[in-house]
Design brief:
Helices cover 10% and strands 49% of the residues. It is mainly beta and 285 residues long. The protein has one domain. The strands form two sheets. Strands 10-9-8-7-6-5-4-3-16-15-14-13-12-11 form a 14-stranded antiparallel β-sheet. Strand 4 and strand 5 form a beta hairpin.
Length: 285
């Protein structure tokens, strides 16, 4: 498997890490979370490499559009194009495109994705999942028809991030539970460990990205968050266990994310927010 293919096949997780929630206009800690439709663009670059990494450079862009509401469910259109230079003049381009829908009740999840490497389609996934009493039923149409039952306790991506917002508000620092997002072949479940840092004041870690000039973000508190993904059954019980990969970002209380960091163990890719369009949230009808 090429490095480009490996990055693209796992990039879907970043999409879900960008689905954030904005609080309603009440001050109580238990105020309802209203997901804010928004469109963002992130420029990607190689942050750092570790020993034996087969990556000399990375450049690319993430574009996604999140919308919907708690009544009709939440949609995400996501695309990541990455150009990876493995050295010696070898450059490969990966292009991941995905569309998801998750019910507002967090019980149903639909997903489809296509993964291209050097303009060749190498992977297609299409299916849906639904929570049941004893298990979560998954019905895959692609890459081949398959029906399977997975852990009833799995959390779908949007609900995962809702729980992060709730925990951050409550001052909690650690969350762990299994997550299912239909990535890879649609059969994998990941154990996750989410670490939430102390909240950052408006004047801390000043930056010059698109978030810095957004009026709706002026004075809004944010938290540093890191989500690590482990192979199911080989999770974070041991402090020596290495995650498959980890995603870091700063999460504003109103739902915007900046300062992305994608750690694939042998190298790290950074994502800078270069464009942000915050849309008006519409109440459920």
């Amino acid at each position: 498997m090429s490095v480009a293919y490996g990055v693209a096949s796992r990039a879907a997780f970043l999409a879900y890490a960008l689905i954030f929630a904005a609080p309603a206009s009440v001050s109580a800690q238990d105020r309802p979370i209203v997901l804010v439709p928004h469109r963002a663009i992130y420029d990607l670059a190689l942050g750092q490499t570790h020993e034996n990494a087969q990556v000399a450079g990375v450049r690319g862009r993430i574009l996604y559009d999140f919308g919907g509401d708690a009544c009709d469910g939440y949609t995400l259109q996501f695309r990541q194009v990455s150009e990876l230079d493995s050295g010696e003049g070898k450059i490969s381009t990966s292009d991941l495109r995905s569309t998801t829908w998750e019910g507002g009740d967090a019980k149903r999840f639909k997903f489809t994705s296509q993964n291209f490497v050097d303009q060749n389609l190498v992977d297609t996934v299409d299916g849906h999942a639904e929570h049941g009493g004893a298990a979560t039923a998954v019905d895959l149409a692609k890459p081949e028809h398959k029906v399977l039952d997975i852990d009833a306790a799995v959390v779908f991506p949007t609900q995962h991030m809702v729980r992060v917002i709730e925990a951050a508000r409550a001052g909690k620092t650690i969350l762990n539970f299994p997550v299912y997002d239909g990535s890879d072949t649609g059969e994998k479940v990941y154990d996750t460990l989410t670490v939430i840092g102390r909240k950052l004041g408006p004047d801390e870690r000043k930056h010059d990205d698109a978030a810095a000039t957004a009026p709706k973000l002026a004075g809004v508190t944010r938290w540093p968050v890191t989500i690590s993904y482990f192979e199911k059954g080989k999770g974070q019980k041991s402090t020596e266990q290495t995650p498959v990969y980890a995603i870091g970002f700063e999460l504003y209380e109103n739902g915007i994310s900046r300062a992305l960091s994608l750690d694939y163990n042998d190298f790290v890719v950074t994502g800078t927010l270069v464009s942000l369009d915050i849309k008006d949230a519409k109440p459920c009808k």
